[in-house]
Design brief:
The complex is a heterodimer. By secondary structure, chain A is of the alpha+beta class. Chain A folds into 2 domains: 66 residues, NADH-quinone oxidoreductase subunit E (Arc Repressor Mutant, subunit A, Orthogonal Bundle); 81 residues, Glutaredoxin (3-Layer(aba) Sandwich), CATH 3.40.30. Helices cover 43% and strands 10% of the residues of chain A. Chain A is built from 7 helices and 4 strands, in the order ααααβααβββα. In chain A, strands 2-1-3-4 form a 4-stranded mixed β-sheet, covered by helices on one side. In chain A, strand 3 and strand 4 form a beta hairpin. In chain A, helix 2 runs antiparallel to helix 3. The relative contact order of chain A is 0.13. Chain B is α/β, with parallel strands linked by helices. The longest helix of chain B is centred in the C-terminal third of the chain and has 18 residues. In chain B, helix 14 runs antiparallel to helix 15. In chain B, strand 2, helix 7 and strand 3 form a beta-alpha-beta unit. Chain B is globular. Chain B has 3 domains: 215 residues, Rossmann fold (3-Layer(aba) Sandwich), CATH 3.40.50.11540; 79 residues, Roll (Ubiquitin-like (UB roll)); 85 residues, de novo design (two linked rop proteins) (Up-down Bundle), CATH 1.20.1440.230. Classes of the chains: A alpha+beta, B alpha/beta. At the A-B interface, helix 2, helix 4 and helix 5 of A face strand 3, strand 5, strand 9 and helix 14 of B.
């Protein structure tokens, strides 16, 4: 039997040296926001930082983040699966989220989603075969005044979209590198 | 636009978010005044101001702060709810983008009032690179200017402010789910009591005031005008100040409009939004986010304050107003709303987890033309049975539209079903 309070051994980092450096800097800042005895509270930002580097949250990444904060793997998994911004499998270099909630819906969001699906040749929830684009429906983005709204790569708002403007957006993104090191 | 402007006073200026712009219009004059008074006096002014929580519940802010003040356990926290996610709502994002310093000043005053020295602003994750970046810049400037940190303006009051962000979950806008998330866990709402204001119920189990962004942005005006004057701005009793209405849907001009508390939905539409768009006739109004009960066009003269709408069995909620026109079939609209709740139910309580999913399946069947009359009756019946049976209000927020859309627009449903 494993006695209570037993610590797991050190877990190998999933990052390259460059990634490790950026992660470490962000991690130190995130942990500093909480009282020392509450550093586990930094789990959400730490997972974000890992995803920023890797593009998604692999098992080794989750295990590593958990080991830094002394959070058991099951708790890390619980958090990673609860929140929609964490990707539990690799996604395209560019992730396109089309809002599907009431204000955007009333202003034609379903047409935008269908247009994206046709242009990219995938269904919502899928990634193009070349790994460049993922398409997803997302819940209300708090951008209802300029509906329909689209969220690119989790953090960039594109508002008041039309089929023409989304075409331009997709064409532009195709030539751009992703923000993260896609696997 | 008509009416007093408190929160949007700088919004016509291109750099409204800059510290200089805010100071030029009287920014950071309330803070030194507040710091010269006793914290309890600030809370007393807030009680007199009739400021009600702008996140959705409309709870009197001063009363909430008195609950926290009464607690003897320290430290105490103020946590700001910037997890804006109620469908239709986009006014807190606008405050953070346009007037982050007004919000920061208000939050500092709020912390002083409840004796808090560490405050967190919990932004929804999607805001990280836009609204939260503006906020972080304002926080950094406030530290440099001596409005945050140790011995603020030589008053002896210390305060640290941190902006943090979530990772995508509507439920984290519920205050206890937000606290769970802030502590690094999944956002399961907590069973109350203890309430967040009480020892054992707040952040890290300490007494905590959880306040909305817009609520706190009103604090400088309350200190400068005095509670009584602020209260008089509202058009109805017990609803002080102005409100930011986030208007979307089929109107000529969408956006965030500042109007006195209690303005009617007709006046908001005609005087601020330029009426319905070309060729549109008003059919329905969502008065306070998608969780609120729907209103018909004939009810557009209702006042928009918390008490009037509660008496009319709907709610002022988050101030998100969606005007829908004749092109919308309300069964389709409800199917859309219900997909949202089925997706966002955290799954902790059975009536909500199963109920929202069941309602969504039935409504999808109805709008696909596969439904029967009994399916419509069942939607109404299931919604009634979900109410008041769960830890948080998400289930009630799904039941309210389900019941009211059917009660007020039954013909739209009957047109799609057999029998």
């Amino acid at each position: 039997m494993i006695p209570l309070g037993t610590k797991a051994g050190p877990v190998a980092s999933p990052f390259s040296p460059d990634q490790q450096k950026r992660f470490q800097e962000g991690f130190a800042k995130a942990v500093a926001k909480y009282p020392p005895e509450r550093r586990r509270a930094a789990l959400l930002p730490a997972l974000h930082l890992a995803q920023d580097e890797l593009g998604w949250l692999s098992e080794p990444a989750m295990a590593y983040v958990g080991s830094l904060l002394d959070v058991p793997p099951v708790r890390v998994r619980e958090v990673a699966t609860f929140y929609t911004m964490y990707h539990l499998e690799p996604v395209g270099r560019h992730h396109i989220g089309v809002c599907n909630s009431i204000s955007c819906w009333s202003m034609g969001a379903p047409l935008i989603l269908e247009h994206c699906a046709q242009k990219l040749g995938i269904h919502p929830g899928e990634t193009t075969r070349d790994g460049v684009f993922s398409l997803e429906e997302v819940a209300c983005l708090a951008a209802c005044g300029a509906a329909p709204a689209v969220l690119v790569n989790n953090f960039t708002y594109v508002e008041g979209v039309t089929p023409q403007s989304i075409d331009q957006l997709i064409d532009r993104l195709r030539g751009e590198p992703g923000k993260t090191m896609a696997p | 636009m008509a009416g007093p402007r408190i929160l949007t006073v700088d919004w016509d200026q291109p750099d409204s978010f800059a510290l200089e712009t805010y100071k030029a219009s009287g920014g950071y004059t309330a803070l030194p005044k507040a710091l010269k008074r006793k914290p309890q006096e600030i809370v007393d002014e807030v009680v007199k101001s009739n400021l009600r929580g702008r996140g959705g519940a409309g709870f009197p802010t001063g009363m909430k702060w008195n609950f926290v003040r009464k607690e003897t356990s320290f430290p105490k926290y103020l946590v700001v709810n910037a997890d804006e996610g109620e469908p239709g709502t986009f006014k807190d994002r606008e405050i953070l983008m346009m007037s982050p310093h007004m919000f920061v000043e208000g939050t500092i005053i709020g912390c002083y009032a409840i004796d808090c020295h560490l405050t967190y602003v919990y932004c929804r994750g999607e805001f990280r690179d836009s609204a939260m970046q503006r906020l972080q810049a304002a926080i950094d400037e406030a530290y440099q200017a001596g409005y945050l940190g140790k011995n603020i303006l030589k008053s002896g009051f210390d305060l640290e402010m941190h902006a943090v962000f979530g990772a995508g979950a509507y439920i984290c806008g519920e205050e206890t789910a937000l606290l769970e998330s802030l502590e690094g866990r999944k956002g399961y709402p907590r069973l109350k009591p203890p309430f967040p204001a009480n020892a054992g119920g707040g952040l890290f189990k300490q007494p905590t005031a959880v306040n909305n962004v817009e609520t706190l942005a009103n604090l400088p005006a309350i200190v400068n005008l005095g509670g009584d004057e602020f209260s008089k701005i509202g058009l109805v009793p017990k609803n002080g100040g102005t409100r930011l209405f986030a208007v979307s849907g089929h109107v000529k001009k969408t956006g965030v409009f500042e109007a006195p508390m209690g303005i009617s939905f007709k006046a908001l539409l005609d005087e601020y939004c330029g009426g319905m768009r070309e060729g549109s006739t008003l059919k329905a109004i969502i008065p306070g986010g998608s969780s609120s009960a729907i209103m018909t066009a004939a009810e557009a003269d209702w006042a928009s304050d918390f008490d009037t709408l509660k008496a009319k069995k709907t709610m002022a909620g988050s101030g998100a107003v969606v005007y829908l026109d004749q092109s919308v079939n309300m069964a389709h609209a409800l199917a859309n709303v219900m997909r949202f709740y089925a997706h966002e139910s955290c799954g902790q309580c059975t009536p909500c987890r199963e109920g929202t999913a069941w309602l969504s399946r039935l409504l999808d069947k109805i709008v696909a033309g596969q439904g029967e009359k009994t399916d419509v009756d069942n939607v109404h019946q299931i919604a009634r049975q979900m109410e008041m049976k769960t830890i948080c209000a998400l289930a009630d927020g799904a039941a309210m539209p389900a019941k009211s859309y059917i009660e007020k627009f039954r013909a739209d449903f009957d047109a799609l079903v057999r029998g």
